[in-house]
């Protein structure tokens, strides 16, 4: 592991797109595969932090004010125990959030997804991809009609294992919230720490975006990253993170835009996702994101059944 940290470009969202602190910042971000995005004024991260601290606890273990954030280990198709790693997580799509998330958590997740779509539109514009192609080549993701996952991660420090598998995100854009170190990026044949910056999200570009732009003069790089093993800290809570993903739909095709501006089918989304699942996790979830999840029940009082 490198002792240096990755120095990322920093931007803020504007009505026109993204304003980077340094000239050429977006071009550098495309090469890095990630950048820092200022948390918008007034954005409240509390619901996401609460979910990460509570989702793995039984419903009965805790106060009434956080009851809706607990009990997710019992929700099939939403809770995932990554048996070969420290991480366990909730990974949930839009319909699932409507069923299982309290209103303030749904609003926070939607705000993060809108930021991700804003980044996607800005980069497509910067790269000169014709606007009339956007909906087709992203499977509607640019318009909010793709798959929009939300993940809450808890790193079980008692496990003597890597925190999270080395991987590239599958979709177009990920907006990630972290408060502690542990995230590492593959650079120059080694793993380089990506330290959190207070007041900033980390934005990652994913494999679908890398594939889409691979024929252009300035292709997007999908960042290969992992979370190193998180050591136990008796006086502190375990590491956590949460993220919003803007991905293509689970069925259909992924595209590549050529230097002449035309778009062609590159491969099926199903094959792309299954290959990712099998290579990354090595567990029983090879069809995740492809086969539709079976909805879990919710009792009349809003508690997961």
Write the layout of secondary structure elements.
Layout: E1 10-13, E2 18-20, H1 25-32, E3 34-38, H2 46-54, E4 79-81, E5 87-92, H3 94-100, H4 103-126, H5 134-137, E6 147-155, E7 164-167, E8 173-178, E9 183-187, E10 190-193, E11 200-205, H6 207-212, E12 225-227, E13 240-247, E14 253-257, E15 263-268, H7 269-280
Parallel strand pairs: 1-3
Antiparallel strand pairs: 1-2, 3-11, 4-5, 5-6, 6-13, 7-12, 8-11, 8-13, 9-10, 9-12, 14-15
Characteristics of this structure?
305 residues, alpha+beta, nine-stranded mixed β-sheet, four-stranded antiparallel β-sheet, 15 strands, disordered C terminus
What does this structure look like?
This protein has 305 residues and is α+β, with helices and mostly antiparallel strands. 23% of the residues lie in helices and 25% in strands. A nine-stranded mixed beta sheet has the order 2-1-3-11-8-13-6-5-4. Strands 7-12-9-10 form a four-stranded antiparallel beta sheet, with no helix packed on it. Strands 14-15 form a two-stranded antiparallel sheet. It starts with 9 loop residues before the first strand and ends in a 25-residue tail after the last helix. It has helices at 25-32, 46-54, 94-100, 103-126, 134-137, 207-212, 269-280; strands at residues 10-13, 18-20, 34-38, 79-81, 87-92, 147-155, 164-167, 173-178, 183-187, 190-193, 200-205, 225-227, 240-247, 253-257, 263-268. It is globular, with a radius of gyration of 19 Å. It is built from seven helices and 15 strands.
């Amino acid at each position: 592991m490198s002792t240096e940290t990755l120095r990322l470009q920093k931007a803020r969202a504007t009505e026109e797109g993204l304003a980077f602190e340094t000239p050429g910042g977006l071009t550098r971000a495309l090469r890095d595969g990630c950048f820092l995005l200022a948390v918008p004024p007034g954005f409240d991260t509390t619901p996401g932090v609460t979910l990460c601290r509570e989702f793995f606890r039984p419903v009965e273990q805790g106060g009434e004010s956080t009851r809706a954030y607990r009990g997710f280990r019992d929700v099939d198709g939403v809770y995932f125990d990554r048996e070969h790693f420290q991480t366990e997580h909730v990974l949930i799509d839009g319909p699932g959030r409507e069923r299982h998330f309290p209103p303030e958590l749904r609003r926070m997740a939607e705000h993060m997804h809108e930021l991700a779509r804003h980044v996607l539109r800005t980069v497509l514009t910067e790269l000169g991809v014709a606007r009339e192609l956007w909906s087709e080549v992203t499977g509607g993701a640019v318009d909010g009609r793709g798959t929009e996952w939300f993940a809450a991660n808890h790193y079980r420090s008692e496990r003597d294992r890597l925190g999270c598998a080395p991987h590239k995100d599958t979709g177009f854009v990920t907006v990630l919230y972290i408060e502690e170190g542990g995230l590492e990026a593959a650079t120059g044949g080694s793993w380089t720490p990506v330290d959190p910056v207070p007041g900033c999200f980390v934005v990652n570009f994913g494999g679908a975006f890398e594939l889409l732009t691979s024929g252009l003069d300035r292709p997007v790089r999908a960042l290969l990253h992992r979370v190193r093993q998180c050591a136990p800290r008796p006086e502190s809570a375990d590491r956590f993170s949460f993220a919003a993903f803007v991905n293509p739909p689970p069925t259909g095709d992924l595209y590549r835009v050529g230097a002449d501006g035309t778009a062609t089918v590159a491969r099926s989304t199903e094959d792309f996702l299954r290959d990712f699942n099998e290579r990354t996790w090595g567990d029983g979830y090879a069809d995740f994101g492809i086969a539709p999840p079976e909805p879990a029940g919710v009792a009349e009082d809003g508690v997961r059944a």
